[in-house]
Design brief:
58 residues
Length: 58
């Protein structure tokens, strides 16, 4: 247990993720974020709001 719950930017977590990715690649597989687009609802709304605002300026 790394004792850093929710701290995805913590050096211990980053190191563990890098090690896992190396092992996955060594097995000839891909890591999820290499094959999936990750988006959040808030990012989708923000993008739509920016596009809407840009249309209003033209």
């Amino acid at each position: 247990d790394m004792k850093v719950p929710g701290e995805f930017d913590h050096p211990k977590v980053k190191q563990a993720m890098a090690r896992a990715a190396e092992q996955i690649h060594a097995a000839g597989k891909k890591v999820t974020d290499e094959v999936m687009w990750e988006g959040t609802v808030s990012n989708l709304f923000l993008g739509a709001a920016k596009a809407f605002a840009a249309k209003g300026r033209n």
